[in-house]
């Protein structure tokens, strides 16, 4: 684990989600708004070799809890979504193949791994 990797993960998974709502609330109506954060089951049940990632997602969970209390008086809601096991570019650091990953997480999934795909809206 390097300091550079630590900062990259925390900047991506915590700093970005920390700064974004501070700007977004300026655009909420008088009735409030909604903030949805993305977390992971790893925040509550970390596995070996996931300490950094798990720590970033635990930070998101705590931010969600605190913000929900801080923004409740403004009529705003703050929630977290934990989408399940997703294939992403960081998996190459831990798994050799998607098959190995699928075998490892089979008990945590609905029978398949999630895969992000880009959808263009017009």
From TrEMBL:
It comes from Chitinophaga filiformis. Keywords: Oxidoreductase. CDD domains: SDR_c. Belongs to the short-chain dehydrogenases/reductases (SDR) family. PANTHER family: OXIDOREDUCTASE, SHORT-CHAIN DEHYDROGENASE/REDUCTASE FAMILY (AFU_ORTHOLOGUE AFUA_5G02870), SHORT-CHAIN DEHYDROGENASE_REDUCTASE FAMILY PROTEIN. This is SDR family oxidoreductase. PROSITE patterns: ADH_SHORT. InterPro entries: NAD(P)-bd_dom_sf, Sc_DH/Rdtase_CS, SDR_fam.
């Amino acid at each position: 684990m390097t300091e550079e990797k630590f900062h990259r993960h925390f900047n991506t998974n915590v700093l970005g989600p920390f700064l974004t709502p501070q700007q977004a609330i300026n655009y909420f109506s008088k009735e409030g708004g909604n903030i949805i954060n993305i977390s992971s089951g790893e925040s509550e049940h970390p596995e070996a070799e996931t300490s950094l990632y798990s720590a970033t997602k635990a930070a998101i969970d705590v931010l969600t809890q605190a913000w929900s209390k801080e923004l409740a008086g403004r009529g705003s809601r703050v929630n977290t979504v934990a989408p399940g096991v997703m294939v992403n570019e960081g998996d190459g650091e831990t798994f050799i193949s998607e098959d190995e990953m699928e075998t490892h997480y089979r008990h945590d999934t609905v029978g398949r791994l999630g895969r992000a795909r880009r959808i263009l809206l017009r």
